Recover the amino acids of this structure.
């Protein structure tokens, strides 16, 4: 029985397709949905001292980015539509696939529905595939939704 679905999003057009597909599946199954985005706060890095950035300015920047991402998650929540219990999670981790797999394991997720971006060749080699890594790491089934119809 599928009661909890995890729908990762990076706010791309492909991810929107995955969220819509996952939302429809949740409606049909009567499942609850967690809409999640993973980001790496350390990727913001330390600005050069020559810019006059203080640690407090750096902290404010991280806080503003976190608020912006949460607002994007709240907007993405509208894509799920009515009739589905939806919550959002903003996860901080350097590896999106690992963060999502850990979240799924810790929170009893029954299935993950993730969009693929459809990269091939060198771009796939250089950028990697979060969906592919997630399939390998996930403690539960992963449904991949292609980027294109």
């Amino acid at each position: 029985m599928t009661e909890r679905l995890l729908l990762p999003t990076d706010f791309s057009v492909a991810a929107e397709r995955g969220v819509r597909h996952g939302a429809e599946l949740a409606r049909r199954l009567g499942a609850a949905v967690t809409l999640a985005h993973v980001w790496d706060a350390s990727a913001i890095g330390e600005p050069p001292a020559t810019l006059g950035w203080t640690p407090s300015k750096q902290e404010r920047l991280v806080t503003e980015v976190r608020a912006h991402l949460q607002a994007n998650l709240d907007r993405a929540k509208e894509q799920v539509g009515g009739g589905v219990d939806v919550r959002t999670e903003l996860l901080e981790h350097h590896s999106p696939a690992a963060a999502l797999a850990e979240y799924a394991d810790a929170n009893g997720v029954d299935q993950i529905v993730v969009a693929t971006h459809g990269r091939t060749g060198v771009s796939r080699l250089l950028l990697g595939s979060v969906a592919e890594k997630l399939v390998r790491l996930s403690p539960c089934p992963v449904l991949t939704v292609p980027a294109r119809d």
Q: What stands out?
A: The radius of gyration is 17 Å. The chain is about 45% helix and 20% strand. The first strand starts at residue 4 and ends at 8. Helices lie at 13-29, 55-80, 96-106, 121-127, 130-137.
